[in-house]
Amino acid sequence: MFSGADVKGAADRMTDMPLPPLRLGVNIDHVATLRNARGGFYPDPVRAAHEAIMAGADGITAHLREDRRHIVDADIERLKRQILTPLNFEMAATAEMIAIAKRIRPHAACLVPEKRSERTTEGGLDVTQTDHLKPVVDELRDAGMRVSLFIEPEVAALEASAALGAPVVELHTGAYAEACLAGEAERIARELARLYHAAERGAALGIEVHAGHGLNEENVAQVAAIPQVVELNIGHSLIAAAVFVGLGDAVRAMREAMEKGRRSIAA
Prior knowledge:
Its main location: cytoplasm. By secondary structure, the chain is α/β, with parallel strands linked by helices. It has one domain (4-115, 125-266): TIM Barrel (Alpha-Beta Barrel), CATH 3.20.20. The chain has 12 helices and 8 strands. The protein has helices at residues 4-12, 29-38, 45-54, 73-82, 95-104, 130-142, 155-164, 174-182, 185-204, 220-224, 236-245, 247-263, and strands at 23-27, 59-63, 87-91, 108-111, 146-151, 168-172, 208-212, 229-234. Strand 4 (108-111), helix 6 and strand 5 form a beta-alpha-beta unit. Helix 11 (236-245) crosses helix 12.
């Protein structure tokens, strides 16, 4: 079982190494969810993307689901045309989505698991499906996209991702976020240790490590403090906060919380 000592040990091993900057990718899916609740064109997720970028987002993430429950094809097309920062296109590894990605050519394509019955992504991709995933990774990479895999924070998943040739992974932080919500200190420490060990292994394999899912202003600092993590992708909590303070202020507050966590590494 991992412990707080494991977390400290992983961080201490990075003390003499240059610390990479930490980027924020803002997921605008749930602006589209709100729009689709009534139909029409408002609120516009592309406007939300511009607002997030102006407030300090380094990139925009959008998940085009097979059932089009929030983001739709026209959103992806407009995002690609109108934003200047990198577009991270979350997608299932299906022929339909591969064709769309190759037509749109976003900066990045993140392969995620997808079930029609789920409210939101429930876990990491099964990266043992090498016969299915390897050709997808190769095809997207050959089309000029930075390919990432959304995976569980397990060393075995990192090693499988490396075998698939993925240059980037995004660690699923959902279990950590759930532990924070429940206020379970031992479980929080255990999940953080899993994230630290996975990030450390990913960096050792030459993989760029991102993280996301369930992160908010209250729990993000401890993930931001993982030295090998270079990007966080955050959506729902930012859009929820925006209802009260506006998206720009929500993004700025998130960046401040992230930077506080990052600074704690050197403390």
